[in-house]
Amino acid sequence: MAPWHRTAAFIWSTLAFLLYFGVTYAADPESAITYFDNPPGWLFFFEDTTSVIYHDVTFGDLHVSHNEGKDWARAEDIPSGQAAMFVEHPFNNRMAFVLTNGNTHYRTDDRGSTWHSFDIPQSVAYIPRPLSFHSDPTRWEYILFQTTQCTRIGWVDLCQDNTYYTKDGFATSPQLLLDDVSRCQFAHSSKDFRHDAHKDLIYCVAHDSSSVTGSHSIASRRLYSSTDFFATKQNEDLGIGKSAKGVVAFAIVSKFAVVALKDQTPGSDGDMLLYVTVDTKEWAKAQFPHASQARLRENAYTIVESTVHSLAVDVVLYEMSSIGTLFVSNSNGTYFVESLKDTNRNMAGYVDYETIYGIEGVGIANVVTNAQDVERQMVGKQLRSMITFDDGSSWRPLSAPSGSCSSDTCSLHLHSVTDAHNYGRIFSSPAPGFVMGVGSVGNTLAPYDEGNTYMSTDAGLTWTVAHDGAYLYEFGDSGSVIVVVDNEQATDTILYSTDMGQTWNPYNVGVQFRAKGLTTVSDSTSQKFVILGQVTRQSKQNGPRHAVIYLDFATLGRPQCGESDKEPWYARARADSECIMGVQQWYSRRKRDANCYVGDKFQDPEVREDKCQCVEHDYE
């Protein structure tokens, strides 16, 4: 061959080589690994942003990433070792707080880029949520802060909780709202609490008398309200006058304000009573007329995930406090009917019940099939999964994947809230219609490590096996990319799918690790994911081994979807009907075989609703 031709052949072969490997590189995800001394107590994404918080509770440090977990830096404005608690602002995605064990705390209004100190006269109260926020955008800097004040008398500390308030997000010194309280909360602390209640309405559970011993009787606890930051206050009599005492708890749940009190009337057994209001003008006692056993006892009920249409309460009816019964209310939250018997719960009060995100009326729960044997003989629970498509009016077993069952009692069962293995929601995300879970097919649920990973693309109506074995899972780019990773054994490989789980592609991240968590931005519209894991000693012998593994699937080289790549997807309760709860609920969703990315980052998929003819289960 002539020298020129040999040179040309070399150039073309080299170009082909580079093009080939260039395409191969472009078709792979991008990854990066950052190491930390300790696992996070919390990994938090600021909503609809690329900013992430990694809270090292062990060392009391806060780390911040502004590119969805690829690069990290410690929050230098907060002294090392001081970050005891991280609290996000639920309505303002720029603001968050770091609470310390002292009187000086920190706030950010730029998603963790800078932090500014503020002082509170007393220590943070030892409660799960010491801050209460206002949902009105004009009042986002209105914040309640619950503190604890202790006085040493001899060998004993006498303590009481007080609440302070700020109207400027602690830019100036906070003011005392009310002392000797157990809980204060803005009425408008839920976006669904939209009625004409006064914008500054605050409820407090407080004592009606002072105590020189530091302790109070339950009868002294009442519910008070104020619209002028307790310059004046009103005793909420709940429509029962002087008997409105013994308040145990107060909460804003969706559009409802709920009060639980312990019955103080002579001859009562200390049953719990629920009072509900939806307009803050008139309270009504919650009624359970068709459930003779429905006695609410202290620490024996849970208000579970509810909708704007109804309240859902799981009540312990057995002596065994890990088995409940789910009750669902009418539209004003005062009349309850039994929805599901023998629900599975744990001793902490968590219930195996979760609604499917973005699909009205659909939820998944686990029931104990041998409840009486568990109660009488203390045997192990046998769990069975159920699904509702009508807000709990009726339930049915989960359909097993085609061909996997040979008997009428066989169905699909999934591990749920009481056995969570990942961050966030258990089954679903804002990716429309996509549901996943770890479980088994049979008469009852098998142990987690014996389970497989299952997937539904029609909001739980039908299911397929996504992968053999128990895997963590997460949805990205509104479902155009799905990531799973083995969390039962060490691995160096994740799997991802771009065709709704029909095929899975492996990607080696370069180290052996045990997966502890898999997550992405809260609305599942990004192509970037974060894995939390612990790298094995074989892969990293020295230095920290707790790792954040960043994955970016924008490098796959897919074009952005056009209108021809999308189709309407309808939620269904049955294969032959497109109606759920009296409406057709549908989304515009990428077609299964469209090789493209959606690209609507930080834009929640929009549900459309068309009315359809009502049937029996649409009525209450």
Automatic annotation (TrEMBL):
It comes from the Eukaryota. Keywords: Glycoprotein, Hydrolase, Membrane, Repeat, Signal. One of its GO terms (cellular component) is cytosol. Residues 1-26 form the signal peptide. InterPro entries: Sortilin_C, Sortilin_N, VPS10, VPS10-sortilin, WD40/YVTN_repeat-like_dom_sf. GO terms for molecular function: hydrolase activity. Pfam families: Sortilin-Vps10, Sortilin_C. This is Oligoxyloglucan reducing end-specific cellobiohydrolase.
